[in-house]
TIGR04086 family membrane protein
Amino acid sequence: MNEPKQIGKGILYSLVVIFALMFAGSLLVSLLLTLTSLTENSFSWFITAISFITLFIGGFISGGKAKEKGWLIGALTALCFSLTVLLFQYLGFGESFNLKQLLYHAGFMGVSMLGGVFGVNLQGGRA
């Protein structure tokens, strides 16, 4: 089993990638909203897809760094992401998650776990 320090680095690295990709996606959507006549409603599925793809990539990266137990590392990655979002939302806006957001974050956890499993298996895994 890998050291907890190595697992923590993998999760931290994947969280940085997740937030960087989320920032880039938000920038792209905001530019499209500003420069075109599109509305926010026309981007709801696009934003959701970007979110799930980003969490899959984050799980893939953390699973690849850990090299074993990808489902657990992916779940921890999604849990850290969800806790970070909850902290920003609660401390910044005074609101907690509603049922819709809980379902999204449960989906994020599932997708990130799947990404972790793929990351372990495609990065060579155990030798």
The CA atoms of residues 91 and 112 lie 25 Å apart. The mean pLDDT is 89. The first helix runs from residue 4 to 35. The two ends are 12 Å apart (CA to CA).
